[in-house]
Amino acid sequence: MAIHSVFDAGALKAELESAAISPSFIPTIWKYVIQNPECNLDDIPSLPSKAYPILRSKFRAMTTTVTSTSDSKDRVTTKLLIRLQNGASVEAVIMRYDTRLGKYDGKPRLGGPRSTLCVSSQVGCKMGCKFCATGTMGFKSNLSSGEIVEQLVHANRISHIRNVVFMGMGEPLNNYTALVEAIQAMLGFPFQLSAKRITVSTVGIIHAINKLHDDLPNVNLAVSLHAPDQDIRCQIMPAARAFPLARLIDAMQAYQNKSGQKIFIEYIMLDGVNDQDQHAHQLGKLLEKLKSVVNLIPFNPIGTTSGFKTSSEQNVKSFQRILRGVYDVRTTVRQEMGQDISGACGQLVVNLSEQRSAGGASLLTDIEDLHI
């Protein structure tokens, strides 16, 4: 029987309640483990005596280990390779920002340095998106909620994490129960992240989008749209066949009506596939009833097997100009971080033998800054 992570909130709560121990002790347990990562669970002070044999026999302070870290050349991005107790590995990426750089709405920025963590929710992914390295792995397994939370614990030892984005390996909404449990843990003590600083990205799992706001109010929703019509979407995202674009837009509209929040649209720019002016007009019309922010993502190389090319700078600028100027859709262009360590969008894949070099990484707009 696999030993649970002490951060598996559901399992820990159930075991404590079965012994008539209040779950109110869970934050105390977590705080001690975070402060003492190599601790023996018997060392946690001030717990009921009945709690110790339960912790000793069924839980472990940490079930995952960081086996390697890779820093980008400018040290704004760090990729963690994390080994799970079943022997599989996932990747998580820390991205550092300085809010004082540049201006926002014509005014100097306030604040200072902060870090965002991109977490994985699955080993591999079953969505099979043709432009994404993780899809080449196929689907291996879901992470438990504790394995998701432990990525945050590991990352916080390197850099204080303020924002979390579920944009790493896997489709978060295909691991829905663990996703919800993990985020609820991150929102509570001792992590105390703000829901408005957590973003869940999905290719468009409609039935899960329909219940996400009820389970996780105020969490940001990002939808990997990547095409303005169903045919192109199915060509580059095979799983899109199960999620017709018209129904997906309806689900996004319903989510927005409930939450009152803008929806982030992720759109990877593929040369000659979805980056022409006509595609920009189609996308603008598709989103006209939504309050959204479109993030145009340059395609990142994922090895020699990919048949895609990065859109030209001219095409990206024209695409952005149409969305902004004709349809008044707020549009940003993602300046990628961590390409030189294969930590950029679409590049996460566990492959210890391959080392890529695609140039240096640089600062970009944090998702928190995309709110209007």
From TrEMBL:
<keyword id="KW-0489">Methyltransferase</keyword>
<keyword id="KW-0808">Transferase</keyword>
<protein>
    <submittedName>
        <fullName>23S rRNA (Adenine(2503)-C(2))-methyltransferase protein</fullName>
        <ecNumber>2.1.1.192</ecNumber>
    </submittedName>
</protein>
